[in-house]
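Hi! If you just cloned this repository, the fastest way to understand the data is to look at a raw example. We've pasted two of them here, unedited. The first protein comes first, obviously.
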Amino acid sequence: MAAPIPTEPQDFPAAFARAWASREGAQIAALFTEDADFVNVTGLWWTGRDAIAKPHDYALKSFFSDTELRPGRIETRRLGPDHAVVRCRFTLSGQRPPDGGTAGPRQTILVFVLQRGAEGWRAVTAQNTDVVQGKETHVNDGGLQAVDYRRR
């Protein structure tokens, strides 16, 4: 059974977290329009529900299988009666690194552009950005590194 579609834009992050907790990529994809797209934290770009479901399903059943995704600060901006932008800072804990241990918690900001339909609010696009505290940008010096120019 698919997770309920939010009836208000500000409820979308909680619905996303519930879908995450289901460990089913299809539950996440059900929150998106059929032709939606999703950009993850490393820049992977998926278009369409099936393309959004598949990598989420894999991750939720492997390295994210023991994670908790908690919504934090939420900001909603209505773009008319049928569209909204929702930003949410999430905390992710319980991720398994490649060595099999447990990684520390991390924060991301997910930006959702929502469209109201007959069933409620679905995302037409989403982008996930890791939060790197105290850093200003990334530099590629043979490997991507978060840096802060203010400390030089």
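Ok, and the second one:
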Amino acid sequence: MTPLLVVAVAVAGGLGAVARLVFDGFLRSRIAIAFPIGTTIINVTGSFLLGLVTALALAHGLPTEWRVVLGTGFLGGYTTFSTASYETVRLAQQRRYRAALVNGFGMLVLALLAAGLGLWLGSLF
């Protein structure tokens, strides 16, 4: 691992986090519900994109460094397991158990399906 790769992953991670912040803010301004839909959409789209990037990278021989920068850096900064976990716990603390289950398990299932779809679509090219 070179210093340049570390810097590239850090910059990409920062850009991914900013993209998440902007996209989540956009969603919150458009969708007013008491469910963390923004985090769900972000994690599901991020999982899809990671599957797609991975499949395309493997199929076309994209160098490992690019996979690390895009996958670990940008998409790692864009998606957020910790926020999803926190929001699930907060829903449970508010005694919104059904919403907590949907958020925790529903997001997991959707993210796995999205990653699989991305891998499948990427393998077609």
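That's it. A detail worth noticing about the second one: DSSP finds five helices and no strands in the chain.
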